[in-house]
Amino acid sequence: MLEKIMNMDRRVIFILVALVVIFPTLVPVRMPITVSEPTRNLYDFIETLPSGSTIMIAFDYGPSSLAEPEPMAKAVMQHCFSKGIKIIGMTLLPNTPTLAHKLMRKIAAENNAVYGEDYVFLGYRPGTLQVILGMGTDISSVFETDYENKTVDEIPMMENITNYDQIDLLLDLASGSTTEAWIIYANTRYGVKIAAGVTAVIIAQMYPYLQTGQLIGLMPGYLGAAEYEKLLNAPGDGTIGLNTATYAHLLIIGLVILGNIAFFIQRRREG
Amino acid sequence: MTYNKTFICITTCLLIFLCGTYAFSQEPTFSTPTNVTAKDTPNDDGSSITVTWDAVPEDSGITGYKILRNTDSGEFEEIGKQLKPTATQYKDSEIEKGKTHAYFVQAITDSEALVNSQQTEGVIATGQWFHTGKTSLFIAMIILCAAILVSIYLCRNNQDVFVRRIPGLEAVDEAIGRATEMGRSILYVLGLGGVENVATIASMTILGQVARRTADYETPLRVPCNDPIVLNVVREMVKTSYLDEGRPDAYQEENIFYLTGDQFAYAAGVDGMMIREKPAAVFLQGTFYAESLLMAETGNSIGAIQIAGTDSEHQLPFFIAACDYTLIGEELYAASAYLSKEPMLLGSLRGQDWGKIVIFVTIILGVTLELFGINWITTLLQSVR
Amino acid sequence: MKRQIPLAFCFLFGIAMIFTQFSPHSYSQAVYKEVINWGLIISPFAMVLAVVTLIQTHVTRINLRTEHWQYSLIVFVGMIVMVLIGVPFGPQNSIVEWLYNNVQVPMDATMFSLLAFFIASAAFRAFRARSFEAFLLLATAMIVMIGNVPVGDLVWNKVMSWMPWTDGASWLRQWILDVLNNAARRGIILGVSLGVISQSIRIILGIERSYLGGGD
Amino acid sequence: MEIIGIWVAAFLTLCIYSFLYRDNPFYRFAEHLFVGISVGYIIIISIHQGVIPLAWEPLSEAISALWAEIVGTTTPETRNALWGLFRILPIAIGLLFFARLSSRHTWLIRYPIAILIGFGAGVAIPNVLQANIFAQTRGTIEPFAAMNAGTLSVLDTFNAVLIVIGVICTLTYFFFSVEHRGPINWLSKVGIAFLMIGFGAAFGNTVMGRLALLIHRVGFLLNDWMGSIF
Asked: Of A76, C71, C150, D156, which is the most exposed, with the fewest CB atoms less than 10 Å away?
């Protein structure tokens, strides 16, 4: 019996995980959320920006990892549009332009923002390092045209924007190590302020940068999205997802405890 | 004498009166922006001029500044946006190269009045060849490079340079041996890095060493690549390994192939290969992202010996959980030296250790000095752009 | 000579790139920018070769009728459809976009989501307190997981209400990440950086040259 | 079209999930389609966002500028466009990859490779030194400045000291050229403990993210796909 529990077929675990995720999706439950400091810092930074400021959002998450960054993007864009802050969107990943463009259009339409005046989406150019550094000297040298094939220099909101000097904040919504590239090349070399919204997996690696002040704010995964939604007082995908995830966490914790109990009983018997 | 006293009296009265009028006057008077200077921005490419002026107190009634500029003594024109009242400098990056620019600052008062500063002298922007703010970085680089090079030089003829045990690398022969015994293949995954990524190069040199061993046993070595240039380099390297071992006949080029550049399509393809070909040993070395566990867990499910290694510290926990052996961070870079036992490479490992000692000393010295309020080390380590 | 000249180029470009990192002058920055573009222009040529190897692999499989050879046809169908429409009409073509959004994107996302299952099975298998180190791994993982979900604080505030502070679970998680994890990560980063620098020096100076392959 | 898209996506999603049970024809189908489509997409992107804007356009502009030079209709713009001729160099270097096809000239591909590797190594040294070594060392020392100023709480002081200990011990673990005996062994043992705690924390922290992806996918199947049926 113990042997069976300890060497449980992984497919049993798979079924349990599936059940525990499907069930709360059908029957939603609400739970209270506390807002962590890095998320609040980002919110406060954007909150205190004057109307007419410009932030750049780098949509550095692939289509496969949009679950966490997308609710963040929605929340932050909603916040910016409501405060009259302009947004320049771009991405370092080749697969992202379509979905980022779609998302920007959607949130902009909901907030009556106008393309070219309130926001613009530059799209993708190959070469992570090259793009980040290139924009430090001149954005239009990297992105001669935006994603909709308009010449960047002729877009109204880009008139007074040459490089990072005119950008108040760069928000990197990342599912990989792009944030580090932004910090190493854009912050270190050009001094642009950087905040990040990252998937849970890379949160841990962001903390040193938060502590050294290279990141001014950070949204940690679903929790970050849910926290930002709470600050905006507009619960959305982040809040729902967080609740569902809770059950799955409890399942995994339960499984690990079960495995260890079996392990200890067996070791006592043997030893 | 009397005359003198009278004079002092009158002057004092006058002064008091003047001060009084100034202090109690209803109309606030505005000081013009003072100390306005324009200088070529230091440490830049010669594309900007920085204008600075003195800060004014908060209650000065100034609501903003405008900057005016002329080119080659021509007309003054307003440039840029209106600045905040707290601003004390403006970086003009829209200058004409090689031409002289002069500036003045216009303070805007809360009654919409404009107060002009004095005009600055004309400035020509020039680019600098060396960023003086990066001097400490440059020196550190030289010290570090020197430490590594001296170590390499000292070890070049030394056949037995000591290197501590790296368990993951000791398992390499075991893994290859087992694959040979079972008559199964070996799967080598180089991660998602491109050829300019240093971790990928480290992984390729490990692959070269693995290939030397598989050449002897004729164990098939399968290498699915996701970067086209890496593919080309790897083919050359593996071929060389087989040649060096005197087994060019055993080299099969089609075992090293391009799968796809997409992260998860690559993982799907590698997982499919694992489950169908059932390799006896799986190597996962290089730069990895989220696909690490997709491959490592599938590899675990087919019972392969797995040796992982990455400098992507965020993926290390998953390799630790799902693989038999994991090279942690810097161990990946030590691996090629460890496996090849080449004195020059082992020497550079020793240089890295000297680098660690330099970091230790810096940290301990820095902490001690900071405790006494001395902060030059922290200042030197300040990042500059 | 067939090795020396490429190594000389490697040295030249390496040193030039180091120089451009220290030199803000417009000439050195122009060189830097141009070389960056070179990298982008060079890569697609290698792509052609890579795709040729991919085609060769699958053609061989089809010719030899190896096991599952039929699936190689599917690779070709996918690739040829994309290339035939996408190359002349660009990635914004509606058919390309449709294929991308309804074939590639969902599969990308699904592959990624498999990790939810794998992380559970890996945790169940690997998190056994076999040794002190394994226990540390297991314990911190559990604490962080509990602190990551709102229910952690809920339970803390109920059970530990006699403690002077609230929200202890998320505080503990944050503390572990901020302090302990931070220290470990910093150690790894510093080590890796030294490794990168030493490897880079070896490359620039031509000590590490195995990437050039063999021959003269 | 949209409803077909949802059905196709849902079918492929289920095909991939079938891998959890075992390898099967559905997974094999999805896997190979995935590889084919993704390679096709990468080809499209590298042509339309790499070759055309960076090589083809500057070069063709330069050639017409060259023509303008010959017929004498030069303008400052065409003069500037002449710089595009330099793009012949990287194109030529890129073409060297095809030397692989002839076994006698294979060595020529060393040129593009050596240049790219040299480039990567050169950029890495100063940037890694500054952003990782400098910044991380500084981050370790900096809290002690606040300690001197007396603005550091007891807990923060404890944390700062703990981080210094952790960094030094972890880095000691990576010492390669000395045997781990005596005090070094002791320090590196503590380093391993820090590493394990760090890995545990990162692992536990990731679970949330991975579940998020599954939740999103299940949401698609239940709401978008099932929703389109009922």
From this structure: D156
C neighbours by CB contacts (3+ pairs under 8 Å): A, B, D
- Residues of A (211-230) whose Cβ lies below 8 Å from C: 211, 223
Which residues neighbour B155 within 8 Å (Cβ) at sequence distance 6 or greater?
B161, B343, B344, B346, B347, B350
Give the separation between CA D72 and CA C108, rounded to whole angstroms: 54
Contact call for residues B242 and B251 (beta carbons, < 8 A): yes
**A12 within a domain of the structure (yes/no):** no
Is this structure's pTM higher than 0.90?
A: no
| C114 in A contact zone (CB under 8 Å) | no
Region of poorest pLDDT, from A155-164, B87-96, C30-39:
B87-96
CB atoms within 10 A of CB B91: 14
Q: Count of alpha carbons within 13 Å of B351, Cβ hemisphere only? A: 33
Q: Rounded distance, CA B218 to CA A155, Å?
A: 62
pLDDT attached to residue B15: 59
SS3 A85: coil
Whole-number Å distance between alpha carbons of D224 and D230:
10
Give B115's strand partners: B107
pLDDT in tens, D131-182: 899 989 998 998 898 888 877 888 989 999 999 999 999 999 999 998 889 9
C181 to chain D, closest Cα gap in Å: 4
Nearest to B352 by CA among D133, C184, D116: D133
Domain range for A160 = 37-238
Structure tokens at A185: 């090349």
Residue A94, SS3?
coil
Position A156, amino acid: P
The answer to the question of residue A30 being in a domain is no
Kindly list the residues from chain D whose CB atom is less than 8 angstroms away from the CB atom of residue B271: 19, 31
Distance, in Å, from the CA atom of C105 to the CA atom of C97, rounded to the nearest integer, reads: 10
B31-129 folds as Immunoglobulin-like (2.60.40)
Phi and psi of B231, rounded to 5°? -55, -50
β-strands B49-52, B89-92 pairing: antiparallel
Query: Does residue A245 belong to any structural domain of this protein?
Result: no
CA A68 to chain CA centroid, Å, is 6
Q: How far apart (Å, rounded) are the C-alpha atoms in residues A84 and A118?
A: 8
For domain B160-341, which CATH number applies: 3.40.50, 3.90.25, 2.115.10, 3.30.450?
A: 3.40.50
Q: Is the pLDDT of residue B24 over 50?
A: no
3-state helix, strand, coil in chain D (%, to 5): 90, 0, 10
Q: Is D123 on the interface with C (CB under 8 A)?
A: yes
Say if A249 falls within a structural domain: no
User: Residue A181 is part of a domain; what is its CATH number?
Assistant: 3.40.50.620
Structure tokens at B218: 């004729």
The tokens of B296 are what?
A: 């490592």
Q: Hey, what are C190's tokens?
A: 């510093």
